[in-house]
Write a structure and sequence with these properties.
The protein has 365 residues and is an alpha+beta fold. The protein folds into two domains: 16-211, no CATH class; 258-364, no CATH class. The protein is 49% helix and 8% strand. It has helices at residues 5-9, 20-23, 25-44, 60-92, 105-111, 118-121, 129-139, 147-154, 156-172, 179-201, 221-228, 236-249, 264-288, and strands spanning 295-299, 309-316, 326-334, 340-342, 362-364. Helix 3 (25-44) runs antiparallel to helix 4 (60-92) and helix 8 packs antiparallel against helix 10 (179-201). The N and C termini lie far apart (68 Å). 32% of the residues are buried.
Length: 365
């Protein structure tokens, strides 16, 4: 028999100050938003060329996968911005983070400078996103001078449009941006802004919980996507490659770096990692021995740094290529971090990333 609803709904814990660096809801929402945005390429895969929703060639099953990732990306992006705004207000003037539409004891206690328990504050509603944003904008830079607050004020128009986009999903469920438009929104506007706000907002945290594991190849997909959208004609395939690398990085174990041997605890972690590395590479090696004729070889994954990237290839009929038999790699898949891309995105070297060996190649047999 289940408990009463009031008992179920009260069976939780508040995120107090001592937990914020580990479970800050704003940064967790940013992580969820970016993870979902990066998943939008995996949702469409080889259908990238036909990805616009009104294209009759676009397979409906990819539409559902894309729409689900889109919903999470937009809703969590909005949630991140809203929580940051309200925390900035609360840290400066607690009363401004509350919707005070009538006189009450909590209001007078706050105005008198008294310490109001969190359980009492939770009984008072908070203002809507737009109202909170208006309050913050009115206080910057006169009364609030933080870097994050200034960035929010400078981009208030963008955040108001994000609020409208969120409402069209949350309240109406009637509108989804096309794949290319979502790339423009995140790559051209949100990624750089949110990364900068998060870095300023999360100062003092031991590590940025919203970020993915650093890539073994040294690339930072967020930075690279932002730079690509500063170009006159951004490459959709290059951005797709970077999105898939970032998506996989959220699933990747911390890349082994012997330079991190700064204390005994880190040495223990690295010993564990080396053991896990051998396990993952052994698993990939076993798969390479399977009867699957499409398996070509195993190479180092540019995301997790392990020799777990399976390359799949097909034999091209000699009659189709001047009488010569060709073996052509058409897809790579990492059994560790799940990084997966087809050859229609091109090799990383074609996008200027010469530090990553070619993933796709063909040779005569």
């Amino acid at each position: 028999m289940t408990r009463a609803l009031k008992d179920i709904f009260s069976d939780g814990f508040p995120v107090q100050e001592q937990h914020e660096k580990h479970a800050d809801f704003a940064l967790l929402s940013l992580r969820a938003s970016l993870s979902a945005y990066f998943e939008t390429y995996a949702a469409v895969g080889r259908n990238l060329a036909n990805v616009e929703r009104d294209d009759p060639k676009f397979d409906p099953k990819y539409y559902y996968s894309y729409t689900e990732a889109y919903l999470r990306a937009v809703l969590h992006a909005h949630h991140f911005a809203e929580l940051v705004i309200k925390k900035i207000l609360r840290d400066k003037y607690r009363v401004l983070a509350l919707r005070v539409d009538k006189l009450n004891t909590v209001l007078f206690d706050l105005l008198d400078g008294k310490n109001v328990p969190d359980e009492e504050l939770q009984k008072v509603n908070t203002p809507e996103f737009g109202e909170s944003l208006d309050r913050l904008v009115a206080l910057v830079p006169g009364r609030i001078s933080s870097k994050a607050a200034q960035q929010i004020k400078d981009n208030a128009a963008l955040l108001r449009k994000l609020n409208v986009l969120r409402n069209r999903v949350w309240h109406r469920g009637t509108f989804v941006l096309h794949y290319s438009a979502l790339d423009e929104l995140f790559g051209g506007h949100l990624l750089g802004l949110f990364a900068s706000i998060a870095n300023a907002y999360g100062q003092g945290s031991p590590k940025p919980i919203w970020r993915y594991t650093p890539l073994a190849c040294g690339l930072d997909p967020v930075d690279e996507i932002v730079k690509e959208y500063q170009q006159a004609s951004p490459s959709q395939s290059k951005v797709a490659l970077l999105k898939e690398m970032a998506r996989a990085a959220y699933h990747a174990p911390a890349y082994f770096d012997p330079r991190r041997h700064t204390n005994a605890r880190q040495v223990i972690k690295d010993v564990w990692w080396m053991t896990a590395r051998k396990t993952e590479e052994a698993k990939a090696a076993r798969l390479s021995q399977s009867p699957d004729e499409s398996l070509y070889d195993i190479v180092i994954c540019p995301v997790c740094g392990l020799k777990t990237l399976l390359r799949r290839a097909d034999m091209i009929d000699p009659d189709d290529v001047d009488g010569k038999a060709i073996c052509l790699v058409w897809e790579v898949h990492c059994t560790c971090c799940t990084f997966t891309v087809p050859n229609n995105l091109g090799n990383p070297t074609e996008h200027g990333y010469t530090q990553i060996p070619d993933l796709f190649e063909g040779h005569e047999l």
